[in-house]
Amino acid sequence: MTDLSQRYVPVDHAKVDFTGGFWESWTRTVREVTVPSQHRRLDEERFLEVLNFDQPPGPLARPIQPSGLSMQHFFDSDFGKWIEAASYTLKAHPNPALEEKIDEIVAKLAQGQMDDGYLNSWFIRREPDKRWTNLRDLHEMYSMGHLLEGAVAYFEATGKRAFLDVMIRAVDHIEATFGREPGKLVGYDAHEEIELALVKLYRVTKDPRHLELAQYFVDERGQMPSYYDEEARRRGDDPAHYHYQTYAYSQAHMPVREQTQVVGHAVRAMYLFSAMADLAYESSDLTLLTASDRLFDNLTRRQLYVTGGLGPSGANEGFTREYDLPNETAYAETCAAVALAFWGHRMAQIELDGRFTDHVELAIFNGALSGIARDGEHYFYENVLESHGQHRRWKWHYCPCCPTNIARLIASLGSYFYTTKPDELAVHLYGANSAEAEIGGQTVRIAQETAYPWDGDIALTLTPAAPAQFTLRLRLPGWCSKASVAVNGEAVDVRTAEKGYLAIARQWAAGDVVRIGFDMPVERLHAHPEVSEDAGKVALKRGPVVYCAEEADLGFAPQLLVLPADAEIVAAFDPDLLGGAVRLSATAGKTSHAGWNGQLYRRERPATEVTQLRAIPYHLWANRQAGGMAVWLREQF
Amino acid sequence: MTDLSQRYVPVDHAKVDFTGGFWESWTRTVREVTVPSQHRRLDEERFLEVLNFDQPPGPLARPIQPSGLSMQHFFDSDFGKWIEAASYTLKAHPNPALEEKIDEIVAKLAQGQMDDGYLNSWFIRREPDKRWTNLRDLHEMYSMGHLLEGAVAYFEATGKRAFLDVMIRAVDHIEATFGREPGKLVGYDAHEEIELALVKLYRVTKDPRHLELAQYFVDERGQMPSYYDEEARRRGDDPAHYHYQTYAYSQAHMPVREQTQVVGHAVRAMYLFSAMADLAYESSDLTLLTASDRLFDNLTRRQLYVTGGLGPSGANEGFTREYDLPNETAYAETCAAVALAFWGHRMAQIELDGRFTDHVELAIFNGALSGIARDGEHYFYENVLESHGQHRRWKWHYCPCCPTNIARLIASLGSYFYTTKPDELAVHLYGANSAEAEIGGQTVRIAQETAYPWDGDIALTLTPAAPAQFTLRLRLPGWCSKASVAVNGEAVDVRTAEKGYLAIARQWAAGDVVRIGFDMPVERLHAHPEVSEDAGKVALKRGPVVYCAEEADLGFAPQLLVLPADAEIVAAFDPDLLGGAVRLSATAGKTSHAGWNGQLYRRERPATEVTQLRAIPYHLWANRQAGGMAVWLREQF
After folding, report:
1. What kind of fold does domain A256-415 have according to CATH?
2. What sequence ranges are listed for the domain Non-reducing end beta-L-arabinofuranosidase-like GH127 middle (chains A, B) (predicted)?
3. With an 8 Å Cβ cutoff, are A300 and B533 in contact?
4. Which of A114, B2, B112, B174 is an S-S bond match for B53, by CB 3.0 to 4.6 Å?
């Protein structure tokens, strides 16, 4: 296990400027379209009304859901995540009109906050006496956690303290209410989020109480007898009537350090594990790191879709059994893949290991990015890997957690590219950008020229203010079986790479160029036989990008396709495909429609006719006309 | 189109005695286990409490469902169907203790019935002022229809009139309330059932008002403007808020004679079409027959599972688009396949055509029978065609419509074997039995000696009281491509068969033996390519029986199987398989687990290893340990 004494620090996204190409386009879309349109939705869909503390509560804007929950219980979380995403865009691109919208929300929250610091707009306006009576179901700390993340991001973007101060008062109230000290409730929120938000707050305030509170929540989780049992009985409920039946739904079935299998609600799990990594980072707690590491392996070796999506089941929005990865009914919530990126990014700051960053990259190019339409204002909540055309992107959702989550990830994506130590620069992701990092007190300019992910050639130029000795650590992606690296024309032996990172220690001077070549053939992937849904099938991947066949290109259901094992698959950039992307094509077979005379079933096997497979990046599906889609294609051999 | 002037009359099930073999075993199970155990469930599960009219209503025995409905609204339908099933068993097997249980229910219903004849136990006890305010959602006539079918069956089995008289009063009340006459509501129940029940009543009472009321309901259905719109507005509801959004859900989107595609809730559709056939039968209404005939083709050529299951979607318990037949998420409610048998049986009484009886046989041996466990007291509501082990049979259901439906079908299955005209005997189904029919006023004894469906050889012996001239019409099943028929050793040319029935007109004398041979090889069936779920796959069928591969036999997920196109498939009777059944076996391939080192995805294609396919009749699945199942198997060619 890694020495925890020295950790990596990410280069802030505001210091990473995307200079054309893939992420320039996506971050611009999020800044110019997604963030403003989401505020419009919050307004049009009457979410913001919940903040009108000076008016009587009125009828619910949204009906009570089948679960018995009003989604309005946790609308605050949507405000928090939207402010966070908006703040990330503000940091490098000031926008007074946008700040004004945020300030309006902050002013209302400040107005509504109770005297003792409690803050949840729904409870304050409707059932203040019921606050803190149901941590199991009602997400109060989850909502405050998202407000807190928003407050930290807004403070860091603008220097304005008002929101941060509101949230520090809220945290003071939480701290006064929960804990092991006499008179406090020994509780913790069933939907994790406050924990990682408190670590973010601590990094701003340096107040150890903020870290300790996070540590308390993580340590208390899953201790028996369960707080949720006690709490239910206090409400007069029978704990046995719990809708989800097991506290594994909230990763609260056993202490976190004992957990070996990723279970329950996928987003909750990812947020918890992110917080565990945060605490390991801050406090060098090896026991938390070990647990987090083990769970990362469990997820990625037994429970992860090939797209980086996770959590197959809608019933618990999460995990079922290992290797249960159905394609058409995949839940694979956008938020979960977004949060996998959070977790992997945190782990790689402690332990430089490509298995973490490979999965960050997998999620951001595939299972997370598929959650937002190319137009930047339509979404998927569930990211299926197969469709018969019934799945369409929506403009808004009754539980719109995903839109703001993917927005805040993309708006801060620069932060995932580089981390530093006093004598190191680690490069995790590739893509055209121009950045600035502090290494050993010196500013180093970094530039990547590349068409990545469409091409594996990267020219990385380093420009320290003055010549400087440090180690460059380049991630060699796990998907790449043939890489080449040269510094100023001189080859580096890539076989010296450890855990997916190639170290180059030297004195760097302005204009040093590292040329990187990642061979990027189209790969055919096969799933472990326990994933019986994928037996006899193949998925196509090129570099970090997973492909799918879509009816919009084929003109017929992609389930009719059969790809010969020896088919040559050609990759070509198409500038007209949804802003430009590499398409794949191959000669393939298709089950023929010929010779059916009104029968539904017949003895004779349908003929196979020659057709052209055309595949597009999975993240771009459902941006054109309705129709079927498949990531896993039948393979003929 | 058929001449409607002369129709076939079914030989009553009480005249058909199963003498060993397949249906003897199932009818005995239903009589000895299913019927008594269902009464126990109705009692244990507190369904019968709804009939305690002398007590205050008390809390609901069942919570309100997500749809906003209390299932108790229509518990009466369960009593009706259970009494109907019980009555069928009583008719040939008197059972005073069982009669006593029925009489208790009847007495309570009689006690609760309102002075004006209204009868619905839930409304009478809880919301008498709300009766008849929501025909769209609340199933009052559906419930009364099932009570009515029960009352007719009980009257026919025992001659007791009490229940029939209660229900005639209820029908009088319905007739006084609904119709086109001034002062009546021009409404009809959204859940069809009363229509076919009224025809059954008419056949007992011969009261033309009963037939006219059925005709009114069928004729009024789907007329615009919709009664449900008006009715919603009278309740103060906005019709636009209708949960199912379209009245196609209830086949009430257009007049029934204009409907060309089977849509909406599958059981509703089958009950409606059965009533349309009944009315065509009774009134020679060719327009209804034409519509019913066209819809039968639409269902069976574009929307029917290979098992005879129907209605793919749980969202509307019914149909979506043509060719949408997903396997693992198949809804294919037991009740729907049961009701397909009702419909096909009725159509064949008007029009002797094998396409009707072929589908009756398909449903009863497969998609309907799969709804009841071999032990006779566990059930499926949804009859999936593929599972990863998550589907298990249940003892009771929050909406237990299916158990009593499959029970009444099996308990009356004898009625599906023979129909007569004054000079004809039509044989529709095969299976060991000894029966008695009236043909031209003369009693003819019929005996079938056969191991059908495990074997296609049948010895049919006819014993008229005295030599008699009539035409025997033998169904030559559509699944059979090679049949032979001989009368007293003399071959009959089967090529003379028309619409699947072979006519043999002669003078019949006691002991005449018709030997029938249906070749019964294992057939490989392929689905139309528009059923893209089944592309590249094959289903196995032998005679009328559809097969599946079950993990209980294989020891691994059946999705890993691949069946070579040239594999020889061996059929053999196994007396130890769940009471005895023919198993299939073949040498096949299986995706190998070898060589995976903790990877979830890899480039190398998994090897295929040799294994043994073992398949059992689909209707017998999920009677042993939990595990996967597949009807459609990957085919290698």
Report:
1. Glycosyltransferase (1.50.10)
2. 425-520
3. no
4. B112
> What is the CB-side half-sphere exposure of residue A460 using CA atoms within 13 A?
28
* pLDDT tens for each residue of A537-546: 999 999 999 9
- Measured over the CA atoms of residue A326, residue A330, residue A331 and residue A332, the dihedral's sign is positive
- Which pLDDT tens digit goes with each residue over B392-414? 999 988 788 999 999 999 999 99
Determine the length of chain A. 637
Cβ-proximal residues to A584 (8 Å cutoff; 6+ apart), any chain: A522, A540, A542, A547, A569, A570, A571, A613, A614, A615, A616
| Domain boundaries along the sequence of chain B | 1-14+247-416, 45-243, 420-518, 522-636
- Residue B205 sits at φ, ψ, to 5 deg, of -85, -25
- CB-CB under 8 Å, A539 with B601: yes
Question: How far, in Å, are A20, A398, B49, B423, B583 from residue B515 at the CA level?
Answer: 82, 66, 54, 21, 25
Cβ atoms of A7 and A350 within 8 Å: the answer is: yes
**Catalytic-labelled residue, pool A317, A533, A550, A635:** A317
Chain B interface, best mutation among A298, A305, A390, A532, by max B CB count within 10 A: A532
Q: Is the pLDDT of residue B5 over 70?
A: no
CA distance A81 to B72: 44
Cα–Cα distance between A68 and B374 in angstroms, integer? 38
Indicate the fold that domain A418-518 takes in CATH: Immunoglobulin-like (2.60.40)
Q: For A349-377, give the DSSP string.
A: HHS--HHHHHHHHHIIIIITGGGB-TTSS
Domain A256-415 identical in fold to domain A418-518: no
Give dist(CA B226, CA B187) in Å, integer: 9
Give the burial class of B445: count Cβ atoms within 10 A of its Cβ; 0-12 exposed, 13-18 middle, 19 or more buried. Answer: middle
Lookup result for tokens 């995949």: A330
First to last CA, chain A: 43
Tokens found for residue B590:
């299986």
Residue B631: φ, ψ to 5°: -85, -45
| CATH for the stretch B420-518 | 2.60.40
Q: Shortest CA distance to B319 belongs to which of B244, B380, B209?
A: B244
**Residue-wise pLDDT tens digits, A353-410:** 999 999 999 999 999 999 999 999 999 999 999 999 999 999 988 788 999 999 999 9
Length in residues, chain B: 637
Options B84, B192, B351, B401, the catalytic residue = B401
ipTM: 0.95
**CA dist., res. B539 & res. B549, Å (int):** 10
Which is it for the CA torsion A56, A57, A60, A61, positive or negative?
positive
Q: Which alpha helices (H) appear in B524-565, and where do they start and end? A: 551-554
The predicted model gives B195-210 an average pLDDT of 98
Active site residue A401: yes
Q: How deeply is A48 buried, as exposed, middle or buried, from its count of CB atoms within 10 A (0-12, 13-18, 19+)?
A: buried
